[in-house]
Automatic annotation (TrEMBL):
Residues 1-23 are annotated as: Disordered. This is HhH-GPD domain-containing protein. GO terms for molecular function: alkylated DNA binding; DNA-3-methyladenine glycosylase activity; DNA-7-methylguanine glycosylase activity. It holds the Pfam family HhH-GPD. SMART domains: ENDO3c (SM00478). It comes from Citrus x changshan-huyou. Residues 111-266 form the HhH-GPD domain. Keywords: DNA damage, DNA repair. It comes from the Eukaryota. The keyword Nucleotidyltransferase does not apply. Residues 1-22 have a biased composition (Polar residues).
Length: 285
């Protein structure tokens, strides 16, 4: 499954001169059986990432890897959105597959931030080799590696500190693969964005491509925003509120609708002829 190619992510600033001075003191690792609450959580527009029932409780949907779920999603989107239907007919159906653990997926997302795909892939390959395989990339193992060792394979000191923060939250019992999978979307958003270096965009990508959640709208993703602007003939690049409005009809399969926005932008924003005619008529009206 090809993810959208981003050279930047989450607007994380870097200062090489400052990050080069970061050092990590020795630390005693504790393993806890309960999840420790986080006291300082950033205010995030989590409503853009989930669907809720009328009583404000989260709706529960099957993951997109569940047999037949993508077909159900496509039927729903075709029925609710004729313009999107033209893209669905013009492109292959989406696939959502990943065998990586949540911890490894999050670590990989940190390594890929703010890098071109080719450079990020090269660093990740060396990162995997450092641990002798993906199966060995575990929180304790990450904490046992020094910042200098990571720097030698191309990981910045700042990103090394992000990886360490993620690993520490695992070894402290704040996060675990099991707890992440069981969290509702609101809690997951708050917990994961408490990790240094993981912002809203990274969580959205994690929810779609690692956990295969069906109803995620990545409002900060430029490809999805541009795709909606082209598909619906919008005069301006839509912001979060406009995206929510436009994509209301996609629920509860906004992840799949977003997938087709990426395909549209991969096609240089060229719409199928049927969609072009529809957009023209809307603009004329």
């Amino acid at each position: 499954m090809k993810k959208p190619n981003h050279t930047t992510s989450d607007n994380i600033s870097q200062n090489p001169s400052a990050s080069s001075k970061i050092t990590f003191p020795p630390r005693k690792i504790r393993k806890l059986t309960t999840i420790t609450p986080i006291t300082k959580i950033a205010e995030i527009p989590v409503a853009t990432a989930i669907s809720t029932n009328s009583d404000n409780s989260p709706k529960i949907f099957k993951p997109l890897t569940f047999k037949g779920e993508v077909d159900i999603a496509l039927r729903h989107l075709r029925d609710k959105d004729p313009l999107l239907a033209t893209l669905i007919d013009a492109h292959r159906p989406p696939t959502f597959e990943s065998s990586r653990s949540p911890f490894l997926s999050l670590a990989k997302s940190i390594l890929y931030q703010q890098l071109a795909y080719k450079a990020a892939k090269s660093i990740y390959t060396r990162f995997v080799a450092l641990f002798n395989g993906e199966d060995n990339i575990l929180p304790d193992a990450v904490l046992a590696v020094s910042p200098q060792q990571l720097r030698e394979i191309g990981v910045s000191y700042r990103k090394a500190s992000y990886l360490r923060d993620l690993a520490e939250k695992y070894t402290d019992g704040i996060l675990s693969d099991e707890s992440i999978v069981e969290m509702d979307d609101v809690t997951m958003f708050k917990m994961l964005t408490s990790v240094k270096g993981i912002g809203a965009w990274s969580v959205h990508m994690f929810m779609i491509f690692s956990l295969h959640k069906p109803d995620v709208l990545p409002v900060g993703d430029l490809g999805v925003r541009k795709g909606q602007q082209v598909l619906y003939g919008l005069k301006e690049l839509p912001g979060a509120l406009k995206m929510e409005e436009v994509c209301e009809k996609w629920k509860p399969y906004r992840s799949v609708g977003s997938w087709y926005m990426w395909r549209l932008m991969e096609a240089k924003g060229v719409l199928p002829n049927v969609a072009k005619a529809a957009v023209t008529s809307v603009e004329a009206a």
